[in-house]
Amino acid sequence: MKRTNKHSVLSDILLIIVLISVVFPFLWVLLSSFKNEADIINYPPKLFASHYTFSNYTDIWKTIPMTRYIINTVIYAVGVCAISVTFDSFTGYALARMRFRGRTFFYYVIMVTMFIPFAITMIPLFMELSKFGMINTYAGLIIPHATTAFGIFMMRSFFVGLPEDLAEAARLDGLNEFQIYFRIMLPLAKPQLITLTIFSLMGSWNDLLYPMLMTTDQSMRTLAAGLALIGGQHITYYGPVMAGTIISMLPLFVIYMFAQKYFIQGSAMSGMKE
Amino acid sequence: MENTSRWSRIKSYWNRPNHVAYIFILPSLIALLLFAFIPVVIGLGMSFFNVNIFFNGTKFVGLQNFVRFLSDSRAINSIWHTVYFTVLETPVQVLVGVLCAAALSRNTRFNRFCRSTFYIPVVCSLTAIGLVFNMLLDPNIGWFPHLLTRIGMTAPDFFGNAHWAMPTIAFLTVWKSFGVTMIIMLTAVQAISPSLYESAEMDGASRAQQFFHVTIPQCIPALGFCVLTNLTGSMQVFDQIFVTTGGGPNFKTESTVQYIYNRGFAAPYELGYASTVATVLFIIIAILAVGSNLYMSHKEQQMR
């Protein structure tokens, strides 16, 4: 029994160290984002300042076109999400519940794309989009992400588990395949759809390289790209960058607070092998 | 009349699951064809051409770009930096993730709190995390260097010193993403049937023996998945380097993806040669992925 106790004390110490190291950087940036520049660059640095201000949050709006960036990021993230969740669940459903010639073949063809590194496709994608005149457009940001193998995989794994007679009964009632899908199957998949929506939103919101490549126009930049470009190696004013960082993290953090289990489910799903 | 019956025939044809299925999968297939398969082919093909971003003076150069790659020390170095990053990041990330999963396997309130908290960095962008660490470790304003000085150590310039920069970048990457490994491993541990432990206990296995002979073998597939996704992800490291060191000091932390970016999307905009570098990286990633997959399935069979 003594061994177990020692083991749990040790693991508790480990956990508390990890806990502090995870929480502290966030707290520090959050606190510092409300300090004035003089307090931030003051040496030796103090954790708490004598007074706090909102000026960094107003300054970031003067430094970069924040509103524009936020709008762009929302359009990009929501656009990708709406289209890819629709397409992925369509495909996942068909692969799981319909017998058709080439089903296994198509399944593997789709899964293979999960292993295509972005490094090899980034230049050709840029070329395709510039040929189509889609650089610096929302369509160019959104359409290439219209479907993901991960989403298809996830939706398929869910639909595979549903009982066979569900669709049969509906067919006898005279519903066509689309009605069966929209009225019966999709409502059952609500948790998976939410998980996929969240993962899709998170992917686009946090994406840096892709939107940076496909937009050259300042007014088309997304939040991550805009921040990366002002917050790179040589920061002139720290306060506004901290405020910008906090703002960029806030939306997903809030969603996470309310929909934690869907985030966790999505990660857990990704590691499941059939 | 003729028209309606044809229409209804079309309708009933497409209402059969084995036909309508193609309509269901068509949008995804078109998207994957246009934005995954064709780009791969173009990317591999382009590495044999000289192409610039303005598409003028495009010409076939055969293996010339690959010959150039072999003598391009900045390209070769970028590969070494990427490998160095991967060697630093992947084992530590997987280890921290596994240890946390092991420590958090019981369902207490404190453990649940830890799980949710450890996952927070996963939700944030690498850009934001990069900026946070950039400032937290800043020699002038950062709290952490100050703390080190206070306890009598000299704090290095974490991102500015060629020696420290890459390990620091690897650290912040571990910090950001160990939560994913933790969740995947927790799910795997919790999926193990309790009967396996019971029978091990009846055979007189100690807790440590149970861990090594039941827990680990059962978790190998999930572990393999974590290692694989980590390896392939790390080999394409970009965001966190871009916002912290920008590849500096002196290109000492420039990753391969970053080099591809700098070659293709900054002067002299050589998309062809950048594709050559991408092709080399693609081959390395493919070898790593297939290799680690084979190794893991071999291990899995051995342990069974």
From TrEMBL, chain A:
The chain crosses the membrane at residues 12-31, 69-93, 105-126, 138-159, 180-205, 237-259. The keyword Metal-binding does not apply. The keyword Nucleotide-binding applies. PROSITE patterns: ABC_TM1. One of its GO terms (molecular function) is ATP binding. It holds the Pfam family BPD_transp_1. CDD domains: TM_PBP2. Residues 70-259 form the ABC transmembrane type-1 domain. InterPro entries: MetI-like, MetI-like_sf. Keywords: ATP-binding, Cell membrane, Membrane, Nucleotide-binding, Transmembrane, Transmembrane helix, Transport. It is found in: Cell membrane. It is a multi-pass membrane protein. Belongs to the binding-protein-dependent transport system permease family. PANTHER family: ABC TRANSPORTER PERMEASE PROTEIN MG189-RELATED (PTHR43744:SF12), ABC TRANSPORTER PERMEASE PROTEIN MG189-RELATED-RELATED (PTHR43744). This is Sugar ABC transporter ATP-binding protein. The gene is ugpE.
